[in-house]
Amino acid sequence: MAKLILSMDGLVLKEILLSKERTTIGRKPHNDIQIDNLAVSGEHAVIVTILADSFLEDLGSTNGTFVNGKTVKKHFLQNNDVIELGKYKLKYISEALAGAAKAADFEKTMVLRPGAMRKPPEAPAAAAPAPTPAPAPGHAATMPTGMPVTAAGADKSHAATQVGVTAASVGAAPAPAHAPAATPAPAPTPTPTPTPIPVRRATLKLMSGGNAGKELELTKPLTTLGKPGVQVAVVTRRPQGFFITHVEGANKPIVNGKAIELQAHALNDHDVIELAGVKVEFFFKP
Amino acid sequence: MDLSQALEIASHTDPGMVRSHNEDSIASVPDKGLVVLADGMGGYNAGEVASGMATTVLTTELRQLLDEHEPHEVDPQSGQKAALKMLQQQIAKANTSIYQAAQSQPQYAGMGTTLVVALFYDNKVMVAHIGDSRLYRMRGGEFSQVSKDHSLLQEQIDAGMLTKEQAKHSSNKNLVTKALGIDPAVEAEIHEYDTRPGDIYLLCSDGLSDMVSDEDIGMTLDALGANPNLAAQQLVQMANDNGGRDNVSVILIKILQEYPAGQGLAKKIFGWFR
């Protein structure tokens, strides 16, 4: 679950979990986060949380709400955003990072049942019942798999009080009576975060024709060479390096005097490519 | 009518870099101009079962119906094309099959699948979809998303809460608001579009659209449009190079030439003399 860290002058005052669909911030005591300071309006701002996403909205405060130094009316909160109200700061820590490893199971596509959806931001706060807290991500191993099957024609009014967080969608609900005990999910495989591998810079240099000597840097994931309808090849930029592949035409491109096969061909520094009557040299940039 | 001369179909599916098994399912019937893609969900192998049932039911049933009826024919009573009725009925049938299996077999409880089906006939395509599997179109260098996801994110975008740009950073990417086999009945969103020779249609699961930007997908189709097979491989490879966090499936359909609905008998006789 996402949380806010309230601080003033670098001093941490409090941590607040965003467990409710609406978390209000203001000077008056009925607010979820009360900040008793004259620079803060009675009802200053609200944070609407929909599953794992939180949105900050200024409620027409006198002195405004700032996020990362900029005044905002409505803002989609990102991890480490700093909300400022007067001298107070609220740092937003998103769910994925607040709860250590995010289980792989959590990312699987799930159905959000429309019957349980409530219009999120427009709904008055008073109508919001005690929220169903989303399960901590770490619980994935004991979660029932997928979505439990709710009985057809389930009590609508009950469904409507599920606060956007349909228990079904996060798997927190107990298995319904008619469904057999849910099987535990397979042990979640840790999701490796895709780290962008720095790709070396490379260039193609024309060796023949009127434009000889001209260079083309391979900045795009794909660069096509040749004449459409006659002979075309593509150079792809991948984490492993650069590859040339035949696309169309009767003849395959020639690399260092030898025609390539149908599969992608890895390019090495100073390879000479011939296609459609043009010669180009491939080389890595220092 | 045999459409395999008018359409070039290429497809590729891959479990991705993280998942151990592939819950996506794809199928095509080239001579009937039919392609189906489903992205299953549910514990253990239930997702595969759901998506497999969806593609099997739809291809076998529709293949048979298309042998008996012309999809472009308009029913005089309802004023609707036969294609629409076929798709509606067979999607309902697939939904029932999956739903009943999920109800009766404990290990399949709660399984479901997204679906995108495209049926080509008479220089047109009819597209039915449920969930967040998508159809894109490349026409004259312009790449655009044709289907609109049934997902929480799309609803938030429609409500003005998020821009498309912000949606890329949302943590709620994996929530669909509609799926096949979850409820006793489901209604697919069905539309019909005109096609033009040179168009390329792309059906894909969210394993592609979440991992590769629309811009890069468009660039790939633009660059490799001459070779749909290679383009399909390239798209899957790009998703995997970017992390491949989900199963990736793509089906590409390139319109090679016009395919107007046959003038029935006259055409058959001409065909004879040729």
Compact overview of the structure:
The complex is a heterodimer of chains A (about 290) and B (about 270). Chain A is mainly beta.
Account of the protein in words:
The complex is a heterodimer of chains A (286) and B (274). Chain A is built from three helices and 22 strands. By secondary structure, chain A is mainly beta. The two termini of chain A are 45 Å apart. Chain B is α+β, with helices and mostly antiparallel strands. Classes of the chains: A mainly beta (286), B alpha+beta (274). At the A-B interface, strand 12, strand 15, strand 16 and strand 17 of A face strand 9, helix 6 and helix 7 of B.
Query: How would you classify the helix and strand content of chain A by structural class?
Result: mainly beta
Tell me which protein chains meet in the greatest interface and how many residues each side has.
A-B, 56 and 57 residues
Estimated helix fraction of chain B? 25-40%
Which value, in Å, is the CA radius of gyration of chain B? 19 Å
Mean pLDDT of chain B: 91
How far the N terminus sits from the C terminus of chain A, by CA atoms, comes to 45 Å
Overall 3D form of chain B: globular
Strand content of chain B: 25-35%
Could you outline the blueprint of secondary structure elements for this entry?
The complex is a heterodimer of chains A (286) and B (274).
Chain A: E1 3-8, E2 11-17, E3 22-26, E4 33-34, E5 45-50, E6 53-58, E7 65-67, E8 70-72, E9 74-76, E10 82-85, E11 88-93, H1 95-98, E12 110-111, H2 156-160, H3 167-170, E13 202-206, E14 215-217, E15 222-227, E16 231-238, E17 241-248, E18 254-255, E19 258-259, E20 265-266, E21 271-275, E22 278-284
Parallel strand pairs in A: 3-4
Antiparallel strand pairs in A: 1-2, 1-11, 3-5, 5-6, 6-9, 7-8, 7-10, 10-11, 13-14, 13-22, 15-16, 16-17, 17-20, 18-19, 18-21, 21-22
Chain B: E1 7-14, E2 24-29, E3 34-41, H1 46-68, H2 82-104, E4 112-113, E5 115-121, E6 124-130, E7 134-139, E8 142-145, H3 152-158, H4 164-167, E9 175-176, E10 189-194, E11 200-204, H5 206-209, H6 214-224, H7 228-241, E12 248-255, H8 265-273
Antiparallel strand pairs in B: 1-12, 2-3, 3-4, 3-5, 5-6, 6-10, 7-8, 7-11, 11-12
Helix pairs in contact in B: 1-2, 6-7
